[in-house]
Write a structure and sequence with these properties.
- It is built from six helices and three strands.
- With about 210 residues, the protein is mostly helical.
- Helix 1 packs antiparallel against helix 2.
- It starts with about 25 loop residues before the first helix and ends in a 12-residue tail after the last helix.
- About 30% of the residues are buried.
Length: about 210
């Protein structure tokens, strides 16, 4: 991840999510602390890369420069995905989007129904391993797809826009559920989705990428 020589520091965002269904305030506080760690590390690595650049140490043959550059992608993506995740939740959320929304229209066009999509999304989230289950939209064709993203930056479909982000690393639910009870956490997540936020993320597709009939 390339950066400018100088860069302003990122500041952690605040999210008021107390009182969620099935996701305790204790879990949220722990999770907010972890998120702030990503912000701190993003700023730290950015500063280190800027210093290396100024000292003429920005070289592909410099192991420290290469490692920090690669590490920054992990920290930065972790910061951003957590912001998407916290932002698309709220107290007293609803399980599915409004049937007349742009979100529902995009989902129905690909999956045939909201129920079909939800089953697929939950199946992605329940896969073994740690990572993220994300509903993405192709901004060109407008089609949506459920994707599994590992380690924040691995498996991200280039240029696709995240619409709904669910953290399925164990830290997201381990204080509330046993490791084998990820399914209960996923059900709880669906009770807390802020579909108004998701709706704002949906883009009007340019519809220039050909897709099959």
């Amino acid at each position: 991840m390339a950066l400018p020589v100088t860069s302003k520091a990122y500041k952690p965002r605040e999210f008021k999510l107390s009182g969620l269904k099935g996701i305790s305030d204790q879990t949220l506080e722990m999770h907010f602390g972890l998120y702030k760690g990503y912000v701190t590390n993003t700023n730290l690595l950015t500063e280190q890369l800027c210093e290396m650049f100024e000292k003429g140490q920005a070289s592909a043959t410099n192991p420290a420069y290469a490692e920090i550059t690669r590490r920054l992608g992990f920290e930065y993506s972790g910061m951003i995905l957590h912001e998407y995740y916290f932002e698309n939740m709220k107290k007293d959320g609803t399980g599915l989007p409004n049937a007349s929304s742009k979100t529902a229209a995009a989902i129905n066009a690909t999956f045939g129904s909201l129920d079909n999509w939800m089953k697929d999304f939950k199946a992605v989230g329940a896969m073994r391993g740690v990572g993220w289950a994300i509903l993405y939209q192709d901004p060109v064709s407008g089609r949506v797809t459920n994707q599994w993203v590992t380690l924040h930056q691995d498996g991200v479909p280039v240029s696709f826009k995240p619409l709904l982000v669910m953290d399925v690393w164990e830290h997201a639910f381990l204080l509330d559920y046993k490791p084998a009870e990820r399914g209960k956490y996923i059900e709880a997540f669906f009770q807390n989705i802020d579909w108004d936020v998701v709706e704002k993320r949906v883009v009007e597709a340019a519809a220039v990428r050909p897709v099959g009939a």
